[in-house]
Amino acid sequence: MINKIIILLFFYYFFFIDICNSQIIITDVSNVNSYSQYPVNTTSNTCNFNFKLYFQTNVTYIYISLSINETYTNGTNLQDGQNFLFSFTVINQGLGDHSLNATYFVTITPTDKLIQSFIINYSCQDIDYKSMKYNIIQKNNLKSINQDLGIYGYIQFQGLSNQINNLIYSCLPSCNIVPMDEYLNLFLVSSEKGFQNQNSTIYIFYLEGGVTNNITIEFPFNSSYYNVDESNSNIVIYPNESTNIIEFGYGCSPLYSITINKTNGGGGGGGDYEPFIQVSNGSYVLYPQIIIPIYQNDKTVTYLGQLYGSSNYLIYSQFDNNLVKIYETPTLSITILEQQYMVVDTIQVSYFFSNNQTLFNSTMFTANFSSTTQVDFFPTIFSFGLFSKNIQWPFGFESGNNFKYSQTISFPTFKYSYDSSVLFNILNVYSFSVAFQNFISVSSFSTLLNFESFHLFSDNYLFRIKVKTNGNGAFIGLGDVNKIALRYESMIDSESNINDNQLVFETVVDTFDNVFNDVIVFDSLGISNRFKVGEYFTSNPLSKIDNFYNNNYNKFFINNITFLSNGNNEVIDVTNKSIENIIYFTYDSDDGSFIDDERPIGFMLMDPVTLAKNRNDNNNNNNNNNNNNNNNNNNNNNNQYLDSTKTLRYSTWNSTISMYQIIFTIPSNTRAGHIPYRFHIGSNLSPLDSDFLPISAQLFIKSSNFDGYGPIFSNIEKFNSTTSIEFGWKFTIDDPINGFDYGDIIVRGEMDSSIYKFHLTTDNLVNGDRFNGDYQININISSKCASQNYIITEVKLYDTQGISCYFSVSESFSVGGSSVGGSGGGGINNPFINYLSDSSINKLYKKCNGLNDGIDSSPPTLSWFNVTKTVESNGGDQILKFDFQAIDNDSGLKDSQYPIVYIETVEFQQLECESSILSKTETSANYTCTINLPAGFAYTSDILFSVYGFINNGGYYSGFSSDSLMNLNFIYSLTNIELIRKIEILRVGQITSLGGKLWVIGKGFNLNTQTVYVKYYGDSNFTSQAIIQSTVYSSAMIIDGIKPTDKQFIIKVVDNQTNQKSNELTVYPIVSKFFIPTTDSSSSSSSSSSPIVTNKPQTCLGNPVCGGANQGYCSPTGCVCYQPWIGNDCNSQVIIIPQPSINTSQPLTELPIIDNNDSSKYLFKSLISIVSLRELDFNSNEINLYRFDKWIYTPINNVKSKYFTSIQSGDPKSINPLTTNITVTLEWFNQTTIIQFANNNITMNPSSIKYTIEITEYKFINQLNSLQLVMSALFESSSSSSSNSKDVCSLKEFGDTSNGDNSNFFKIQIDNHSLYGRFIKRAIIDSKVSSIENQLLDSEMKSIQTSSISQSFIGITIPNYKKSILIDPDFSVLINSKSISNQDNGSVCESSNKSKLSSAQLAGIIIGSVGFFVVIIISIVYTIMKKKKDQILENKLKFINKK
Questions:
Q1: How far is 701 from 123, CA to CA, in rounded Å?
Q2: Over the stretch 196-233, which tens digit does the pLDDT of each residue have?
Q3: Residues 6+ apart with CB under 8 A from 18
Q4: Are the CB atoms for 232 and 278 separated by under 8 Å?
Q5: Residue 845: its pLDDT value, please?
Q6: Sign (positive/negative) of CA torsion 1150, 1156, 1157, 1159?
Q7: Mean pLDDT of 25-49
Q8: What distances in angstroms separate CA 399 from CA 49, 371, 859, 959, 1297, one per listed residue?
Q9: Span 925-948, mean pLDDT?
Q10: 363 secondary structure, DSSP code
């Protein structure tokens, strides 16, 4: 067996032949795994080998031929000038080592040939099945992300040197095995969804000595389902009173709900398992039957399923590994709503060719046809060559009504074509040939010269593509040309050479949403050239499109998954509130790669609420996010970039703990128990689901009210007066848990397609509230009208969590969308769920008076149609303004109907301009609309105009194609469109409320001449923003220094030379609890005015140092502790204590540690208070002293309170003192939270109290004076009032922190418990971040210190200021690993006859407070403490030992 293959003459070496002064260079460019292969399948003994050889020569040759001594097949060959890439596959090679003898014949002239023979060595290796190992990756038994896959898992074969090509196998019971990752020898094993726990025996067949043997693998298909029978379930059929059902919405067939009592029965205890439901119609089983959870509380959970077709249905469930029938429906007769394809008569086609006046570069063709098939509001699909488009009414409808109409459509094509005719399709049913007057043949295609990809952020790549045109233009399609097409708007002028027919395009694509495997180069003749990702595309120079997806990552290398908070060890309750969390993990590759890589890993929760939110974001913003470079979209918008609200989050590298981390949000009222989630590496094609992760890596939550269903109509009433022209519907919208947020309803006229749109919010409430409220939609029509039905054709209702119910008469739905939580619309998520038996509930017939029910069969006419074009000087926008008038002398024009002007160019690039009514009379109406042409739109072609959607009061409509406008002598086209380069901002990357760097995607960026400006919320002006110079492209750049904010902000770009301005785009940051905005509105825009003090490096303390490897590590700045450890030696832990009671008299906090045996007694307690405010001169002498006698208390919420007082500042003798306000906000933190203060990230520990202190303008006596706020902290042990005490010691410490937060700390320790306070060395002074000084004032203030009571005074000194100051200290309680003894320097001890306890018998408790000042009046403290009597040390020790 050959382990190292030697390729004679080739393997990336060059061979030179010199005959008649000619030279050939031959390079082997075969894949590295081409020379060693396993057989084509496991029962074969032959292999196939693919080789690629690259020839370069300096002479012109006639042709090259190849002679090989083995059987081979030709692959894709490339020839460009004198360079040639030859690809071939040698087939049916037996086991063993082989040598390929090949001879190339290069014919230079009929008489001169270059002949060269060569040898390639390769090996067909047999799989060593006896030493091969395999790893079964089994799904856990919790709620699955992919219910519709049934039972599944993975097999990964290990110890192999090559890839297994094809498994020959059998399974008992049956299963399917498909390859998932060829590089990893990873195979997906799946079985039909079943309820029984059973193994599948897999037989892998292989040949050995000509005899077929097998490897037997027992693959466990374990599944756990909740036991359900008739005793603990209730089934309701929708509709429940009807057996004859007519669908009135597309895909809206009958539903059934199953409500299960989860406290009765079990099969796995209930909590996190689903029921197994199977539905039969008596003759066959519907497999699989997916049910969607929609509601859940502590006792019951409700699911929804859907029934299809007419039948009587039997519903079964799993109970103790048996199927039991739990319900039988009556025979249901269901009439399915299907699209009615129009039946047309003969299609007539006419042409108008280029006349160098109204059409320069295009040909216009017009098709006309008639139909009597009723319009059913489905879109019409047109296709022509590579391109297709779905177009809604009114486009093309020239005259008539929805029961009998004619259509006339005009489209432009390029002036020239490579063929004499091209087929045009309508609905993929009707077609006709479009003839070309000018068709030409070409000798070469436009082709690809270079393809570069650059990873920017998340899954966004920048692509720069260079093409060579054949003189007829060249454009780029990435995958589907209807989604991403790059034309002149994406061309980089500075890098293109039009004279040499070389063009360079640039764009940014989010490859998570837009996976493409082809790059298409197409031209104006209709010729296209397709290139595969990963394949070579040219031989001069030899180049290929590298696989930028990088799918070689092993997703199973993701390990060590933990969460900041998890329901396994603490309660995460999302009842009526969302919770922020952080996931941490490593990527442990075999070779250590991918660590601290710039390529992030994507993370997405897969719970029902998150999936619904993600679906709604995608539906609402599909055009903006997926197709920013396709001129089929009108990019004339200043709308926000909503991608930041998507649920997909990306990792960042935490260098402190050497792990990846991702901040994410668990949504309110999602489903209790285990939350599925998913990792994405490289692309969205092969994710890692939490189904395959251990229990330790699962996320668990509590939720008392799961709401996975959108708002619904609980009551509907029609109102339709026979004497009034007003009619409509009254709805009761019901959403009892999350509450209704907003909705959109569309009503259409069945005869005339008139459109009425309604947007509902709680502002439209008639009665009730958002949980159960009444709404009304009214339609007013003219007294002259045509009798017809008015139909609700579309409904979208959203709750406050973004979950929707959706109905449409013309749009198909995925049933449930996703198997977890039902993220699909319509179908199951139907707002009409209570009215499925009433197919007329969405219809209202309006009877009109007059002859023939008021029908007016003479459609409106067009009086005039004007178009004006203007170009803005500072933005480069090309503005088209349309003004036109329509007349209907018989019945008049219908109110509130707005015709649409269509702006079209070649390849179905179409813009819509909906008009508004300027004025209206009984018989006429004047309309106008304005639209901004996207950059590059219709450049080198022409634009056609058409207008449709005029409706009269008699039920008839009209429209005018480009051909009709031309025949009426109106403006119908626009030629010689300029290519005006604009600066455009299309979208941005995600940014959190912490601020920092922001990716901006757009067009026309130029570092040398442009400035980015930002306007923050509340600001009146824009301010310039820094650009990272090394990361600026024409279509992407990074701006740096975005300030922390939880509010939206606006960005724009200005060219300093031309004064050209981009559009303004609003950015919405992802707001996280790990950023808490300060109470000062000006602080959001604070900046440093002077150098900020940072702590000096500290000595790493402790034995072991920093508590050892599990508690912290020694950094250059000192000890950095792992949570929950804290302190300068990492030997203390925060004690979790109940939230303290609120003092309503003053901002005083008492943090007691209660005796476990007697809750009325305390072991330790601390008191934190604000003592006074002092004005100091430059020598720190006290000039003025202010004590606080009275505070005004205001509760904010259950964890936050505010206190207010004021003083009269200035010279006491002055008759004009200044009122200075002091506001103190106290906030309690129940869990670890990251906040930002003064441009610094601060970690708040659980059970911490934070003081935020704001002081307004102070009248200093001298400008050299400063202000000092004095706080007091007192810590007391119960032994202070106990006669039965042991040796007790206390100790005070004050110094600098070492964890990077640049703060001072003080620590008062008694025995093994501590009060811990943190004082940040910076404040926000006059809206700028400035340094402050924290001082220990114990000697000056004569603080108390005994062995059991210790007190400290801390002075926070603020320099002279003008307007305001904001400071932010905090405190907590700690338990220490070591008690204080008389051996500790500075300790104060009291001896007794009792022996000392060892440190191993004690637990250490620290009370920590970060960034606030704690003050207490000594007399008050002493009085309070003396009230605690008769508490003994033994009780305290019992409490500690229990901890």
A1: 55
A2: 666 789 999 998 878 889 999 988 877 777 888 888 88
A3: none
A4: no
A5: 95
A6: positive
A7: 89
A8: 64, 11, 6, 6, 80
A9: 95
A10: E
pLDDT at 13 over 60: no
Residue 146 reports pLDDT greater than 50: yes
Q: 1032 is written with which tokens?
A: 């600026």
Q: Which residue has the tokens 């570092």?
A: 1007
Q: What percentage of residues in the chain have a pLDDT greater than 90?
A: 36
Handedness of CA 396, 399, 403, 408 (dihedral sign): negative
Q: What are phi and psi of 1084, to 5 degrees?
A: -65, -20
d(C-alpha 279, C-alpha 288), whole Å: 9
Burial of 1017 (0-12, 13-18, 19+ CB in 10 A): middle
Q: What percent of the chain has pLDDT over 70?
A: 84
Nearest CA among 940, 80, 75 for reference residue 444:
80
How far apart (Å, rounded) are the C-alpha atoms in residues 999 and 544? 28
Closest CA to 1399 of 1373, 1378, 1375, 1385: 1378
- Is the peptide bond prior to 1369 cis by the omega test (within 30 degrees of 0)? no
Hey, which residues does 639 pair with through a beta bridge? none
Average pLDDT of the chain? 82
Written as one string, the DSSP assignment of 1144-1184 is: SSSS-EEEEEE-SS-TTSEEEEEEEEEEEEEEE-TT--EEE
Contact call for residues 3 and 32 (beta carbons, < 8 A) = no
Q: Is the pLDDT of residue 916 over 90?
A: yes
Q: Is the peptide bond before 1359 cis (omega within 30 degrees of 0)?
A: no
Contact 516/484 with Cβ under 8 angstroms? yes
Q: Which residues are paired to 67 by β-bridges? A: 103
Is residue 1419's pLDDT more than 60? no
Cα distance between residue 639 and residue 450, in whole Å? 34
Q: Look at residue 1232 and tell me whether its pLDDT is greater than 50.
A: yes
Give the mean pLDDT of 36-49.
93
Helix (H, G, I), strand (E, B) or coil at 159: coil
**What are the angstrom distances between the C-alpha of 1237 and each of 403, 676, 960, 1117?**
67, 34, 62, 21
Enter the tokens of residue 929. Answer: 């609309």
Q: 390 vs 387, 393, 405, 428, 511, CA distance in Å?
A: 11, 10, 19, 12, 24
Query: What letters, b where the CB count within 10 A reaches 16 and e where it falls short, cover 413-444?
Result: bbbbbbbeebebebbeeeebebebeeeeeeee
**Three-state secondary-structure class, residue 1416:** coil
> DSSP character for 109?
S
- Find residue 1291's DSSP bridge partners: 1309
pLDDT of residue 642: 34
Residue-wise pLDDT for 1129-1151, tens only, equals 888 888 888 888 889 999 998 88
Judging by DSSP bridges, how do beta strands 333-335 and 244-246 pair with one another? Answer: parallel
Alpha helices in 1022-1167 (DSSP H): none
CB-based contacts of 137, cutoff 8 Å, min separation 6:
153, 154, 155, 156, 556, 692
Q: Please say whether the dihedral angle defined by the alpha carbons of residues 1141, 1147, 1148 and 1151, taken in this order, is positive or negative.
A: positive
Between the CA of residue 348 and those of 344, 439, 965, what are the distances in Å?
11, 22, 18
pLDDT digits (tens, 9 = 90+) for 859-891: 999 999 999 999 887 767 899 999 999 999 999
Whether the pLDDT of residue 787 is over 90: the answer is yes
Closest listed residue to residue 760, CA positions, set 736, 796, 717, 734: 796
Check residue 599 and give its pLDDT: 65
Three-state SS annotation for 185-237: CEEEEEECCCCCCEEEEEEEEEEECCEEEEEEEEEEECCCEECCCHHHEEEEE
Report how far residue 1382's alpha carbon sits from residue 1133's, in angstroms, rounded to the nearest whole number: 23
